[in-house]
Design brief:
38% of the residues are buried. It contains six helices and no strands. α2 runs antiparallel to α3, α4 runs antiparallel to α5 and α5 runs antiparallel to α6. 82% of the residues lie in helices and 0% in strands. It has one domain.
Length: 195
Amino acid sequence: MTTTATEAAPATIVAPLRVLYFVRFGFALAWAILVALTAAAITPLSATLLVIYPVFDVIAAVVDHRTSRGTRPSTLLYVNMALSILAAIGLAVAAASGGRTVLLVWGLWAITAGAVQLIVGVLRRSLGGQWPMILSGGISVLAGVVFALQSGSASASLVGLAGYATLGGVFFLVSAIRLGRSVTVRERRASDSPS
């Protein structure tokens, strides 16, 4: 059987993307647990955790970009990197001002980064397993609006960030599993087609 470059390309993108999604799930879960335990007040530990999340997002976007170089979504990953760097800086500054400012910065980041994730997911539909990423991006936009609105409330709490990260992590897990299935289906089709 002969494979063309276009047939081979998705497999070279899907395998590392799948690993990245599993890593993102594990990170999100661990981060959410730590934030839930420290969310009562902004301490040096909780402030560090707040900054680490977008920094990890930058690292993940760099890995994703290297994996998908040359594809349409790869240029959007630069936008994601810039947004996450700005979020890390903003959260470092906001942590000194209190939870309400943190929620506002986080909300703005969730709205913009969620929109980018949604678009990247739509552009990657042909890889398979992207519906969770599309849903996650849309939910991130909505959650960002909620966080921004909560920042104006006296009862603003950082505990919601743990739930946000957990849900995002679950979407990465589901997408990783679905990507694995899409590779299996492609391999079966390739083996069934005549050489």
